[in-house]
Amino acid sequence: MVDFSEVEIGALEEEFQGSKVLLCDFHREKAWVEWCRKKGHGVSYAQDSLLPLLRSIAAASTPEEFSTRLCNLQEAKVWKDNEKVRAWFSNKWLPEAKRWVHVFRDEDLKVAIYTNNGVERQNETLKHSHLEGYKNCSLSEMLTVLVTDFLPRTYRKYIELNVKYSSFYRRYNENMPKFLKDRPRSVADHVMSRLTEAQFYEANDVVAKGNGMFHVKSQSHPCTQNHINFGESIIMPLCTCKDWAKHKLPCKHFCAVFNHVHEWGWEKLASNYRDNPLFSLDNACLGQTSCERDDSGSSDITDHTYTPVSVEMQSPCNALPERKRPRK
């Protein structure tokens, strides 16, 4: 996943044959807003009408939606009145639609990753938290900070989070379903909120269609149904709702099946999805802990330690220049 750089796209596709390069949603949106705001493009006055049309195309979840929303754009006044808009979108963005329109993204993506901001956040952390004051440092000095400070601290934080989310560190609430224990907090919080929403479904709202497929009545549109497939082997689970399309995590419709069809729970989801490393804690980190489970009934462990055996925190290299702190 990259920003819209034809050089980067070409280099990646040449080096990694058969790979598919996608455009980051965040940077696509940023590029659109910046283009519309430039006075020379003649649409700064109409960006409130143009941008929603563009965003609706990006969010299209079916080929039919994509075609309809593209027609809506081409019928709009801002499109017909401005040749620069037509040239910009038709020549730059439309030919690359398969890189940024959601419907063209492979359904076998095991998790919903739509931006490359995680990588950029790491870059910002390195620059502003670890290289502050080293404005003119050499490459070797930067690498020294990277190897002796940034990477060990990042790895230690990774181990710490794995430990804190595990049942060895803190006893889980008794109401937490077993399948959500020992998982990253973001996954557990997401599914728990959907389980709460699913409590409003009744048993007759869920209809089994066989082979792991179900129809669940829509709460917002009672006359329609959402189609669910638990998947198998290499086939991804699927729900036709927007929540699943956005997060790729069990939605309230999946949770309604979990609640009312007990033989179809989390463990029935396709194994290549269910066992995704991003949905589980890293057992290698937990194996390096010396935490003990609390059997006293209290929710917090008072005596807990963890020792990352493969990383030693080192003091900064003596060859580094003294940091120059900004006066602010």
In brief:
This protein is mainly α and 328 residues long. The protein has helices at 6-15, 25-37, 47-58, 63-75, 77-81, 83-93, 97-100, 117-130, 139-164, 185-198, 242-247, 252-260, 271-274, 283-286, and strands spanning 206-210, 213-217, 225-229, 238-239.
Explain how this protein is built.
It is a single chain. The protein has 328 residues and is mainly α. It contains 14 helices and 4 strands. It has helices spanning 6-15, 25-37, 47-58, 63-75, 77-81, 83-93, 97-100, 117-130, 139-164, 185-198, 242-247, 252-260, 271-274, 283-286, and strands spanning 206-210, 213-217, 225-229, 238-239. It has a 4-stranded antiparallel β-sheet with strand order 1-2-3-4. A hairpin with an 8-residue loop joins strand 3 (225-229) and strand 4 (238-239). The longest helix is centred in the middle third of the chain and has 26 residues, at 139-164. The relative contact order is 0.10.
Query: What form results from the Cα inertia axes?
Result: flat
- How many DSSP-defined strands? 4
The main pleated sheet reads as:
4 strands, antiparallel
Largest sheet, spatial ordering of strands = 1-2-3-4
- Helices, by number, come to 14
Structural class: mainly alpha
Helix and strand pattern:
HHHHHHHHHHEEEEHHHH
